[in-house]
Amino acid sequence: MAFDPYQEQEERFNWRRTLGLAAAFAVHGFAFIMLLAPMSPPQAKEKPKDNIVTVEFIEPPPPPPPPPPPPPEPPKKPPPKIVEKIKPPPLPPPAPPPPVITEQATPMSTPAPPPAPPAPPAPPVDIAPSENISYRKMRPPKYPPQAVREHHTGKVILKVLIGTDGSPKDVTVEKSSGYRELDQSAVAAAKTWMFNPGRRDGQPYEGYALIPVDFSLTDL
To answer: Between 58 and 173, where is the model more confident?
Structure first.
């Protein structure tokens, strides 16, 4: 019996192997297709929305009412009548008065007046107590050095009780100058002055007098 090589090749062909290889190729091809496919299906593009414009018809406003008619003009007054005044005729000048005749009296025709009675004595005049200016000039108040350095000025009004002999019995400050050193200097100077006592019915009496004392740097 002779050897046939083609027959040996046919006997060696295995269908199981062929089917297995075909199945393997199919599985790999399906997997390759799945890899190429997108993960999610493409979304459909949204359609653009149409812009809808609504048109509303607005009725025009009613026309304004007509303006009221102008008020009637007041009746014009007639022009005033000019009445000419008739001037009366001038009066004649008055007649001059008759001359007055006076009789001149002579010194012999009038009696001499009686002699005047003597004048009564003048009543005594009441005099209030006052300051004797001469003593202020002789003994003026001293300007304190502290007040000069600090430029203190002012006016002190003293209330002085003046005795019957003109001496000051009590000196107080009625109105202060605002600075203690000026007030003290004015009181000290007034205690060395002499005053004019008051008089009532010609007799001296004790009384108070208000004495102003000025302190000014221009008098230095």
So the answer is: 173
